[in-house]
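hi! just following up on the protien thing from before. the input was this:
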Amino acid sequence: MKKYVFTLLIAAAFGNIKTAQAQQKAYDFMVDGVKVIVQPSGNDIVEVQTIIKGGVANYPVEKQGIEALAMRGLTECGTLKHDKNSFKDALDKLDASVYGFAGKDFSVIRMNCIKSDVNSVWPLYTEAITEPKFDTAEFKRIKQDALNGLKATDSQPDAAIDKLATKVAFAGRDYAKQPQGTAEDITALTADETKAYYHSILTKSHIFIVVVGDLDRAVIEAKVHDMLSTIKQGRPFELKKSFFRVYNNSFTAESRDLATNYVEGVTSGPELDAPDFYAFQMAISIFYDRHFLDIRTKNGLSYAPQVFFASGTVSTAKFRVSTTMPNKYIAVFDKLVDSTKKHGFNAGELANMKTTFLTGFYYKNETNAAQASSIAANEVLHGDWKKSLTLMDNIKKVTVEDINNAFIKYIGNIVWVYQGDPKKVDPVLFKNGTLHNADNPVSN
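and the predicted 3d structure came back as:
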């Protein structure tokens, strides 16, 4: 009875979401050559995100961290009209926020406030984007903050193993770069070169703008036009997408004094526009549950085993565990993968995952900020922001045959990395497990 009631509640929730979207339809238009995407919100909050495309592809490997520092410096180093403290004070009086951050594929400069304060906050937002000062003293401070942040991150085993996996798996590719930089690269950066770099990527060809809020189109158009008036056009920009192929199992170990050992594996995922993109998402989500059951519940090999699909201009599947028995882990893992390829997933698993996945998606996207982020990511990665609104339809189309084929196609050879006690792991087991002779290797 409880399950029946829950199902009805989920169905009602989906129905309400579709109705709300139909009543408040998102739209886009161009302002001075820049795309503006608007999603009416039905509430009094306004979220604005200016997206700068490119991410790690924008800078050379020796300048890792420069874009992240630039994003932080927009509000932390003052503007031509306000020093850092007066800028923050002006925002605090309105309980508003303006700040930027950098990622692998794009950076975001966001503004959030209540609708009645837009006229007061927008000038500050425009000021941060178009007139950043990059004060030398303040820049020195945020550099030190960045260095402290790197030390803190490196002390976290989950973050450290993922950083190592990224470095090894994507060696020689843009995706090997760390958006937050390295201590060596950040130390060498200056305020002047960071400011110059920022203005080199702040071009109309690099950006688009997302607005989630109930503002009239004419108001948005006027404010965006004003903001863009000092921004140059720039050279045409095209986001580079590539397929990640693993030709052989590999194993890289790094000795590290830890309470337990950490293992992470990286393998292929579908390209963003591949027809089996959503099927693979479903397959990995179901495999997460199977992996958790086998690794933790049945064998007690790890407290929090993880499986996830990392989608971007390069998409991958990742497997991560902390374990005192890495050799036993890989044996259980290989057996689970082979069993999944042989017997496949079933209709019940797919039906349950569709409900779980979609419920989680809509729950996460209740806020204006989350909706804007979803629209932004789909526009950058898929070249189609509307996919953020049609996810439910795409997921509904996925069949059991689709997810089984996708799992077989992409889960093959794996780049394995290890941090911990080298004496407790046998590299041969990771290099010569059952995955190396998969019947259906990745082809793309």
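The chain has two domains: 23-228, 250-437.
The first helix runs from residue 2 to 23.
cheers
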